[in-house]
Every structure is written in structure tokens, then in C-alpha cells.
Amino acid sequence: MSQESEAVLQLLAQHEQQIIEDWLREAGAASTRHTDAARRAMRGEASDILQALGSALKAGASADEFQQPAWAPLRQSLESLSRSRAAQGQSAGDTSQFVLAFKRPLFTVIQRDLAGQGDRQMAIIWLVSTFVDRMAQWTVTTYQQTREEIIKRQQQDLLELSTPVIKLFEGVLAVPMIGTLDSSRTQVVMETLLQRIVDTGSRLAIIDITGVPTVDTLVAQHLLKTVSAIRLMGAECIISGIRPQIAQTIVHLGIDLQGIASKSSLADALQLALEQQGYVITRTRQPA
Amino acid sequence: MNRIPILQMGQNLLVTIQVDMQDQMALALQDDLANKISATGARGVLIDISALEIVDSFVGRMLASISGISRILDATTVVVGMQPAVAITLVELGLSLTGVRTALNVERGMELLAQTRRENLLAR
Q1: Can you give the CATH number for the domain in which B16 is found?
Q2: CATH number of the CATH domain containing A206
Q3: Do A198 and B84 touch (CB under 8 A)?
Q4: Quick one: which of A52, B4, B46, B116 could link to A74 by a disulfide (CB 3.0–4.6 Å)?
Q5: Residue B21 reports pLDDT greater than 60
Q6: Which residue of chain A comes nearest to B78, CA vs CA?
Q7: Residues in A touching B102 (Cβ below 8 Å)
Q8: Cβ pair A229:B87 closer than 8 A
Q9: The model's pTM
Q10: What is the ipTM of this complex?
Q11: Tens digit of each residue's pLDDT (9 = 90 or more) over B78-101
């Protein structure tokens, strides 16, 4: 353990309460924006960090190598701080601000206790400044990781939500596709649709592409694959919701959709489906 | 080597594949089926692959060629009960089995065979 670390450790031990109070005041904990519970939580986080820092310094950790095992407890408490802040929706700036607010109380103590020892004071201030910066950096890194995890989870949710398989009629299933069709989407759609065909024993599936903004050769390829797979299972498939522009694109691109029943709207497709199964729809009275 | 049994039900032949297909078995089945169709004069062949979980391109091609052979021998082939994963695999392999008729389960397959026979009779 270096001389500076020892000095910092001593200061921390001597003025622990004082430092925490100043830190929280500096971080704005006293402002009326925070509830009592939030203030208590901040105090808990501050003393956790202080303790973890103390044990890291005692273990002789160097501020230049923040990945050392000695810093692990401190990294953990910073991670939990940044996770809880990210979950509350606070920005990365706010979170690192809280950690950086730790500097001033430390500098105050150093200035007061080590007055008149110019060189030593400078060295200690440099040490303190380095590890507080590292701590702030670490909170931002973990904050970003947490947000990325949230985004990934949401993407997954969106993928699953965006492909519902609906039973329209006895033996008729429908999939309204919304958004761009890429390989992973098609895969999910294909799997859920085929499974539902097995579960419900449906003879017909309608794929509605009203919500698909553009159709290019790749999208058409995906559609053709899905249709082939449905046919292999022993069911039939109708594609509906082909908008005029998309019909034009398909023809211009020279995509061969022959052998696939297509209808312009879902209503037409349902009518065709019912006709194929021998149903006849009649109106028994005029609506009022 | 195990052989896959071929059952006769009236004018139709029923083949249920209950084990993972090996290439030798597939070839033997193709051979047996051709002999059986010509011996019994069957008009329909129903292949149930609902227990088949793994296919490769060889088995996929075998299904297509069985269908072709029986068409020459004047019998209609229906493949029934394909698992979703199998269907996706075949499509990804580029085998969409055009010309092979399919149905969801054995019951629907039988219906389809009966319907095809009626249509053929009417066409005459």
C-alpha cells in the first residue's frame, strides 16, 4: 500500500460521517425533489461505496488498474447503484454526477487536515481524483450496459408481439404481418403459424401483408418459403393485403407468385376461404 | 435391417414411418412400395410421417420419387402429418416437393384420396 493510499484511508476513517453528509449535500439529496425514502437510499449507497473503497485501498489496490480483483466490491456497489438508477429512468449524467460529487468533500478534508504539506497534498489529491474519475466512468459503462439489455429485451418482446396468429373461422387462421419482414421475423412467423396449424388442424392460413411497408425480392423469397412450408404441412395459404404499389413492385421485380392465391383485402381472402370450405354466407334480413 | 411395414386398407396402402429413416431403409421402402402397388393394384398411397422429427435431403428426395413412381403406376400419393420443424427444414433445403400432395393428418389424407378418386371417375 502506498503512502498516499494510507493517508486517504486514514482521512476516510476519521471523517466518515462528515464526508457522507457533505457528499449527500453536494449531490443535492437535501433538495425537496427527493422523498425521505430516496434520501435514505442515497445515504445507504454512499456508505456502501465508502466502505468498498476503504477495503479496496486497504488491499493495496492501485487506481490505475480498476479491473483488479481488489476493486471488485467497489465495482459491484457502483453497478448496483447504476442499475437501480437506470431502472428508475435517470440519465447516465445524473448517475455519474452523484459519484463525482464525492470529490469536493474529500478535497475539503484533505485541504484542512494536510494544510502546509504542499507536495504530499498534491499527490493525495491526484490519487483521489483518479479513483473518483474511474468510479464515475464505471457507473456510466454499467449504465449503458443496463440500457442495452433493456433494449435487447424489448426487441425480443416486439418480435414476439408483432406476429400474432388469429383464428378467423373454423379451420381458418390469419397472420397480420406488421413491419419489415426480415429473416428472423419470417422464422418466428413460420414457426408459430405452422405450430398453430398443427394445434388447431386448420386447412387454411391467410397471411395479411397490409402492414408490410415494402416488398423486395428478399421479402418475396421469405413469403414463398412460408407458403411452401404451409403447403408441405398439408394446408393451403392465401396472401392478402397486397397494395397497388406493392403489386406493381412485385411485377417489376419479376417475382413469380404463381400458384399462390392472392387477394387484395383480408375480407376477400376470408370469403375465398369460406367458399373453398363449402360455406355460403347469406343475409337473412336487411339491417335497420 | 428393419423394413417399414406397408398396410393395405381397401384400395389404399398405408405407410407409417415411426423411426428415423436411414438411407437403406428409404431405398427398401421405395422398392417395396413399387412392388406392392403393382401387386395389389392400389389406387392411393398414404405416407404418415408425423413421428419423423429429422429429415435430410435424401429422405426429402425419396418422398418426391415415391410420389413420382406411384403416379406412373396410377396411384395417388399423399404425405400426411409433417411436423413444422420438418417442413421448415425441407423448405430451407430447397425441396418444396411440388407434385407431392399433402394433408394435415391421416383422416384428412384419406378424405383427399377419396376425393381424388371421385374426381378421376368423373373425368372419365
Answers
A1: 3.30.750.24
A2: 3.30.750.24
A3: yes
A4: A52
A5: yes
A6: A234
A7: 231-234
A8: yes
A9: 0.64
A10: 0.80
A11: 999 999 999 999 988 888 888 789
